[in-house]
Amino acid sequence: MPPRPRPPKPLGTITRGTTNPNRLRRVDRWLAGPQGHRLRRAAAPLVVDLGYGAAPVTAVELFTRLRSVRDDVEVVGIEIDPARVAAAEPLARPGLTFRQGGFELPLDGRLPVFVRAFNVLRQYGEDEYAAYWDEVRSRLAPDGLFIDGTCDEIGRRSTWAALDTGGPVSLSISLRFGAFTLPSDVAERLPKALIHRNVEGEPVHAYLRALDRAWLDAAALASFGHRQRWVAMCGALKADGWPLLDGASRWRLGEITVAWEAVRPG
């Protein structure tokens, strides 16, 4: 997909910008872990924290975490609000910079390996997100991913959709053990593409119900801890034919990733 012409002004609107330290640790762990191969293969790994908010802490954390994968990774924090960019400048350093911009990704023609936009598109209308998905996808490196995610205020409940240049690839759910009663408690944190689709007859609703059933069926393992129960739940879903894209090493972290085709809006 050829990059779209860059718009004359930042594409998007200023969002609330609230954030907290360590809020995005779950998605960062996923990027540095099972997706780290994308960074390792890149000739010049470039990563974007899109819409980092009123404080640049998530961009700084992303930079630190991905440097464990490639010590030459470059992270650019992009914010549409120029005041937020100015406030972030004192934290800039070699490999970490900040720019004003939006979904057009003002990167001087360079193509990022990762674009992470968390708690951004959830503040847009349901009729808007698809165009922004397409805009960012058109500006990815050939092996790149766009991560559109949402989490609660301190990162205990998190979900994200991953998209490559061809479209949506997967949905990940990551929960802190002890921070939920049923896996479907995460429903209010689904990405914009799915949050209004959690109704009877929609694939994502069926998926969350399947998670709940398997979690309840594994109740006998509760005495061994939440981790063992979660792993059993994930194994049951895989046995039932759900196209899971990860395995026990990720499940033990309270994470599960399913192919987008299983939850694609009907």
Automatic annotation (TrEMBL):
Keyword annotations from UniProtKB, A to Z: Methyltransferase, Transferase
Entry's Gene Ontology BP terms: methylation
EC number(s) given by UniProt: 2.1.-.-
GO molecular function (one): methyltransferase activity
Protein name: Class I SAM-dependent methyltransferase
Source taxonomy: Bacteria, Bacillati, Actinomycetota, Actinomycetes, Micrococcales
